[in-house]
């Protein structure tokens, strides 16, 4: 398949009542593994890469790999910029063929956040590319990016934020955290209040480590996209770590990389099945 447009992917998930997992990639093997995992279980999802991780390659390389790995597949997959940090990154990703974009300006004040999102929306909507924005900061660690601000999404600001910014989906801060070091304390009552006033579907960051029964319940509160980064990275890194522990002279990079692809692909497949209630955790 071709990379699927973000609006179409969101509409497809809504129609089928599915949660879309958005899996973070860093490199070729992770990208291959995510697509393999989604295709193995015939469920839709997104491959996403953060501005940080883009420094290792570039949007053109990621989009090229996506197109190659999607050849011969038959499940809808989109390509998303995660935690877009600059307008240059946004433009580079849209120009490379990314099919949805996140602009992360949640560290700015309300008005500045709206301004940043408006600018991104104006550009992306020319190309029919949906935009994810974030209101309320999400604590924790994403690779080398540490955020210590704990600022939950205020339901009183949601409607105005969405309407003025023009965003198409909204990332919320409801006790979710990035990474596996901190423990998420999900406030489902807060999510319910946000869902009641949000004109657009919602996004959950920091999916790794959140109990699956809570994630599944979020389907009732207009949640459409759930981000998983650390769970997949751990599966990847563990493969190499275990091999090295067993043999400090281990040098079979090809063999271990292939094994890492299998492990990550299995993790991705399990996650998309479980959050959609199609497999027991
Ligand atoms: O944007 C990416 C994520 O929110 C991933 O969070 O590493 O805790 O799963 P996680
Ligand atoms: Zn995130």
From TrEMBL:
GO terms for cellular component: cytosol. Binds 2 Zn(2+) ions per subunit. One is catalytic and the other provides a structural contribution. Its cofactor is Zn(2+). The keyword Zinc applies. Keywords: Metal-binding, Zinc. One of its GO terms (molecular function) is zinc ion binding. Pfam families: F_bP_aldolase. The active site is at residue 82. The keyword Zinc applies. InterPro entries: Aldolase_TIM (IPR013785), Class_II_FBP_aldolase (IPR050246), FBA_II (IPR000771). GO terms for biological process: carbohydrate metabolic process. Zn(2+) 2 binds at residues 104, 134. Zn(2+) 1 binds at residues 83, 178, 205. This is Ketose-bisphosphate aldolase. The lineage of its organism: Bacteria, Bacillati, Bacillota, Clostridia, Eubacteriales.
